[in-house]
Amino acid sequence: MRAWTAPDVPTPLVTAPPVRLHDTATGGPVELVPQADAARLYVCGITPYDATHMGHAATYVAFDLLNRAWRSAGHAVRFVQNVTDVDDPLLERATKVGIDWVALAERETELFRTDMEALRVLPPDAYVGAVESIPLVIALIERLQEAGAVYRVDDDLYFSVAADADFGSESGYSRELMLEIFPERGGDPERPGKKDPLDALLWRAERPGEPSWDSPFGPGRPGWHVECAAIALEHLGTTFDVQGGGSDLVFPHHEMCAGHVQVAEGAPFARAYAHAGMVAYDGEKMSKSKGNLVFVSALRASEVDPMAIRATLLSHHYRSDWEWTDADLFANVDRIALWRRALALGAGAPAAPVVDGVLAALAADLDAPRALALVDQWAHATVGGPAIADTSDPDAAVTIHRVLDSALGLAL
After folding, report:
1. Taking the complete model, does pTM exceed 0.90, yes or no?
2. Strand order in 279-281's β-sheet?
3. Which domains, from first to last, does the chain contain?
């Protein structure tokens, strides 16, 4: 599958510190010095049945910061992302609106690409759809069968969580909490015939009116978790550096992905698991089911500067839960305008401390709000009052432009 066009990103002027990131599995920070030729990152992608809302955008901008922080620290990055281009929500939406499910997926995936380009998110090196990955899924299920971790319920195949000795170590959730969350996030704990209510669907046998593909298990289609596990394993291998996504993927999705690979390969799925917070609107988590969505494309169509949208996302720490408001957006419109006024002056307050501070902030668990505050201070110092000759930096604008673009993804 085709990704989106990469923006031109300048090379950082100085090397950033090693990246430290909060790991969900351990509950604390880990230093992410890559153990291979490149830092390896997998970020779970969209199910393309609706446009990109701010919850999506916040997650992808967050992991774009990680990509950039690694690059600023001098590392190459291998970034992989999936598209769940066949799944129940997509099929249900296509039926509801009377459109072919393939056409719906293609349309919304293309809209997502244009949103990511507008927000200057670096594209994945491998952008992989579920449909094109079905041979990989089949191969992984066969490995799980060899490990004795698969059983049949009617014509469907399930993964036995009991086969994974480390099940629960990624999320740290109690069994009681897992059982509460599982049905809310695509699980079927009450299905008769399951060995454990938490066992996850691997292969859904063909149903009337649904798409299906041939397999050694009979015609059908992949489960959600095994799709990402198979794609990550193929394109990144085991024990890659970071599995990323929204905090609503901690369980069951990332727990199950880890379990599938750990049982099949006998090696950890990832070194660290990182999760972005949820974005609310009108007092509730932004979600398609509630309909309380603010779309990137709608703001762009209203001529809102995409850099102001990105700055709004960056003004909240990626792990925090927060609420989108017009006031917040407009404050960042003003912030970007101030920065542009300061940059237009050419000379300004010394830039070197800002560069060092921005890179250090991002290396410390992607602290974008701290980085933005440093640029705010520089802009106010540059715009406010007459410059003092012996403290003015004649190259300040060029230097600040460069770090804004390379580290924060803000092209001004």
Report:
1. yes
2. 284-285, 279-281, 322-323
3. 20-281 (3.40.50.620), 304-408 (1.20.120.640)
Q: Please classify residue 295 by burial: count the beta carbons closer than 10 Å to its beta carbon, then call 0-12 exposed, 13-18 middle and 19+ buried.
A: middle
The model's pLDDT over 259-300, given as tens digits with 9 standing for 90+, comes to 999 999 999 999 999 999 999 998 888 877 777 899 999 999
Q: How far apart are alpha carbons 349 and 381 in whole angstroms?
A: 6
User: What is the crossing angle of helices 224-236 and 255-265, to 10°?
Assistant: 60
Do 77 and 67 touch, CB atoms closer than 8 A? yes
Tokens 């604008």 correspond to what residue? Answer: 397
E strand or H helix at 29, and its extent? strand 28-31
CA dist 11 → 15, 16, 75, 214, 285 (Å): 10, 12, 12, 47, 37
Among 35, 21, 78, smallest CA distance to 274 is for 21
How many Cα neighbours within 13 Å face the side chain of 394?
2
What is d(CA 250, CA 329) in angstroms, rounded to the nearest whole number?
28
Both structure tokens of 118:
């507008």
Q: Which residues, 6 or more positions from 186, have their beta carbon under 8 angstroms from its beta carbon?
A: 88, 224, 252
Residue 341 token pair: 């006024």
**Residue recorded with tokens 């950039």:** 68
Q: Return the biggest CA–CA distance within the chain.
A: 80
Helix ranges restricted to H, 213-282? 224-236, 255-265
- Cis ω on the peptide bond leading into residue 306 (within 30° of 0)? no
